[in-house]
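hey m, so remember when u said the C-alpha cells were messed up on ur end? i reran from scratch. heres the input so u can diff it against urs
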Amino acid sequence: MEILFLKMLLLLVGCLVGLFYHLSDLWVGEKRTVQNKPNFIVILADDVGWGDLGANWAETKDTPNLDQMAAEGMRFVDFHSAASTCSPSRASLLTGRLGIRNGVTHNFAVTSVGGLPLNETTLAEVLKEAGYITAVIGKWHLGHSGLYHPNFRGFDCYFGIPYSHDMGCTDTPGYNLPPCPACPRHSAATSESGRPFFLYLALAHMHVPLVLAQPPSSSSFPEPYRASLREMDALVGRIKDKVDGCGKENTFLWFTGDNGPWAQKCELAGSVGPFSGAWQRQRGGSAAKQTTWEGGHRVPALAYWPGRIPANMTSAALLSTTDIFPTLVSLAKASLPPNRRFDGSDMSEILFGQSHQGHKTLFHPNSGAAGKDGEIKALRLAQYKAFYTTGGAKACDGSIGLEEHHQPPLIFNLDQDIQEQVPLDVKAGEYQAVLPAITGALTDFLQDIATDNVSTADYSHDPAATPCCNPQHIVCRCQVSCSSCNREP
C-alpha cells in the first residue's frame, strides 16, 4: 500500500509539472490568441480542516507556502463548502448548484453506475466552449463509468483516481500501474497554441494519509497527518512557483477544501480550529465532516492573482464553493448555462477589493449525519445559524450523536458563539426578532427549488461498474472508463 500511494503521488506530481511545462510554452506574454481570458487553477484539498492552515490558526506551523500565498493574496475566513462530504461538494463546485438542484446528494461508490447527472453542465464544459484547454488531475468521485467519466464532462485531459484513495480498487495491489492511455480524440486539444487553460486539481490530500512520501530521518519527524500536510503545502508551493515564473499576471490561482476533517480517523484527521460544534459534542459524535456544524463545511480559502487581487487581505464575506462557477464564467467572459438557477454568485468585486458583501443567506444540506441526504437542515442568515435537524457523525471515540429535530429551530449567534455551544433562548428578543427572517428565507428557497429545473442522480449499483484492478493487464481498468474514447459521446 505504501509503495502504491507513493507511486500514485509521484505520478500525479510528474503529470502536473509536465502539464505546466506544456502550458508555459503556450504563454506568449500579452499576445494571446484568445484575448483577455485569464488562466484558472482551482486546487481542491480533500477533508482539509479550517485550522490546518497556519494563516487561519496560529497553532498550525506546517503550511508555509499556503501562508505565503495568503500574505500575497486574499484569505477568506467565512468560506463554506456546499456540502460536508465528497461527491455533493464536488458536484456543487462544478455546477454552481447545490445537491438539491443538481441531484448529487451523497457519495458515489466503487460500484456506482451513475454520477453527476448528464443534463447538468459543468464548469469545464462552459470554459471549453469559451476557448479554454481544460484538465482535471486527482480525485474525481462524480462517476467513472461510461459518459460519467471526466473526459466526457468537458475535460480535455484527465489523470487521477475515480474516488478516494482508500476506496476499493485504489487500495488494491495492481493499482500502481500507469494510468489509462490517453484517449486519441483528445490528443489534438493540447497541440493548439495560445489558448487559456482551466486546471482543476483535486488533491488526495488530506483524506486519511496512508504513507509518508519520505521515510522519517529522525525521531522528531512529524506524525503522519502533519507530514502529509507539509507534503500538500509543498506541492501547492511548486504550483505557485510555476505560476509566478510563467504568467502570474494572467493566472488566477484558487485554493480551498471540499469539506471539514474526518474526525473519526482520530490522529489522521485535521483541525476544525475554533469551530468545535460544542453543542453537538456534548451529546456525542463528531461535529466535523458529514455534519452541518461549522466544522463540517467551513473550509480554508485563498485567492491569488498578483496585480488583480489585493495582497495581504482578509475577507469576512460569506461565500461558498458554489460561487466559483459563476465567478470564473464571468472572468472568462462566458455565459451561464440557461434554463436553470444557481446557488452561487459572481464574487469578482469581492476578489478585486471593490465590495465586501457576500451572501446574506447560505443553505447547508444534510450530508450523512442526520436526516435525508440533500435536504436543507441548517441555514445561515447574516451572523445567525439555524438548525432544524442536528446530529453528529461518528467520532474518534466511536460515539454518534443522535438525530434530533427542532421546531422552532435552534439558533446560534456566531458573532458571539463561534463554537456553536449555547443556542439563543427561544423567548429572548433576539431570537424572536430573527426567527421570521430565517423562516421566510427557507420558505422562499424551497419555493425556488420547486420551480427550478432540477436533476436526479442515478445511485444504482452494479459490480461490473467497478474499475478492474488485474495487475497483469495494464489496460484492464481502462475498459470501463475509456472504452468509448474513440467515438464522440
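this time it looks ok to me. The domain at 2-30+38-481 is CATH 3.40.720.10 (Alkaline Phosphatase, subunit A). if urs says something different then somethings off w ur setup not the seq
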